[in-house]
Ankyrin repeat protein (Aspergillus clavatus), 272 residues
Amino acid sequence: MWPLPTELILSILDYLGPDELLKCLITSPPLFALLSSRHLEKRDKKGRTMLHLAVPENHPELLRVLLCHQAIDPNVKDNYEYTLLLSAIAYSRVESVQLLLDHGGVDINVRTSYGTTPLYHALVWGKNELLEVLLRQERLDVNARGEGGRTALSLAMSGGDYVNLNMNNIALLLEREDLCADLPDQNGRTPLSWAAEYGELEAVKLLLQREDVDASSVDHDGLTPLQHAAGDVDSGYADDELFIALMDRTGVTEVTRYFDGHAQSWRPLSPT
């Protein structure tokens, strides 16, 4: 069956790193029969196994075969705490994401030490199609809390300069019937509170369309979403529409905003 003695082939496989092992499997799939846990558990300098490397290389069929091995841990993490599922989301490998979710052992709600989940990564950086795949999973906990008691929706609202919110993804998440869109974190802050502070106008407007969102909620510091929006030293330069939307919902007619750190009372212009 083999052009070389099995013992010699095994010796060669033992010598190879995970990236080289993966290349061998791609060119010669029958080698899978010789793999043992010591091969599958090999890691490179970034802590990645063959399975981690199979995801960005976009080899879902090979990934499917590897997942069938009894020695496989489908939730193995690399040095950056990325599981196979997180890696597939990061590389927008929709087919691999679906394949992993079909594997009963994959933890769809796994958290990193930063409290982020696959849902958060898909929500912020994933394609719309990829998020749809996740949201179809009944075992997905859309209200899972991470660091500080914050949900994926809450974390997405405070990305600031690091994240450009995908409003199609946000709207898609808000369609989940079991989503608690107003769930406060450990400091009593809601997703609306964070969206208001970071000036995410479109997100604020989407959240305010929901009856279950309390625009007047007060956090543990005694601040409302409107006050968080107005509290920035440059809040006077923020989009007026953000303040109008919050004020219309809460009935507030006047708010203090800041221009270069100087407080100034502000109220919307009366319609002519």
In short: The first strand starts at residue 255 and ends at 259.
